[in-house]
Amino acid sequence: MSRELPVFKYHPDPLKTGAFARDEDGVTCDCCEKDTTIWYGEPFYAIDEIEALCPACIASGKAAEMFDGEFQDESSCDDVDDEAKVDELCRRTPGYRGWQQEYWLAHCGDFCAFIGYVGWKEIEEMGLAAEIEKDCEENGQQDIDHLREHMENDGHLQGYLFRCLTCGTHRIHTDTD
User: Fold this and answer.
1) Buried b (16+ CB within 10 A) or exposed e, 155-164
2) pTM beyond 0.85
3) What pLDDT score was predicted for residue 166?
4) Distance of alpha carbon 54 from alpha carbon 57, whole angstroms
5) Is 96 helix (H, G, I), strand (E, B) or coil?
6) List of residues 6+ apart from 48 with CB closer than 8 A
7) Cβ-based burial of 139 (10 A; exposed 0-12, middle 13-18, buried ≥19)
8) DSSP labels for 131-143?
9) What is the pLDDT along the chain (177 residues), one digit of tens a residue?
10) What is the pLDDT of residue 90?
11) Which of 170, 109, 108, 113 minimizes the C-alpha distance to 142?
12) Which residues of 45-73 are buried (b: 16+ CB within 10 A; e: fewer)?
């Protein structure tokens, strides 16, 4: 029932981030109709209500094609100049769950990899505070003092950590409930 987990360039550890659920009893994939012990539920933007998708149907693009759906809204992404990268992110990469609207960051001309959910405490524990502060200052998108004081994992101000696939720079997107 369990199949090998494909590599997702823009979401390298979807089991760790909780994008995929795992249960030995398993479920049936709505796309290929095969049983799997690892599956994805949401976010998936489609007309049809989808309960579960196996990792293989996501990675191949079969699920997005079959249900005319997307895992990430193209209008809620930073801009990149390569339509193949947009297709890979939006139609073949499991998304993450945000409070309002998920947003995918880019850097060095490509989308970043989603690393996980963080508060300022986790940023400091990972030794990323100076890097995040510098990125926020350069991009003018976050009030660092506000993040230090209020950003808490699973709190009212949630942080979403990304890493550039080219240079390794870490970036943060935030959202409030």
Assistant:
1) eebbbbbbbb
2) yes
3) 97
4) 6
5) coil
6) 67, 69
7) exposed
8) HHHHHHHHHT---
9) 445 789 999 999 999 999 999 988 989 999 999 999 999 988 899 999 999 999 999 999 999 999 999 999 999 999 998 999 999 999 999 999 988 889 999 999 999 999 999 999 999 999 999 999 998 888 776 788 889 999 999 999 999 999 999 999 999 999 988
10) 97
11) 170
12) beeeebebbbbbbbbeebbbebbebbbbe
| Amino acid residing at 68 | D
* Closest alpha carbon to 28 in 52, 56, 50, 58: 52
Handedness of CA 85, 154, 170, 7 (dihedral sign): negative
Collect all residues with Cβ–Cβ distance below 8 Å to 71 and sequence separation of at least 6.
Answer: 43, 44, 45, 58, 64, 89, 90, 91, 92, 93, 94, 95
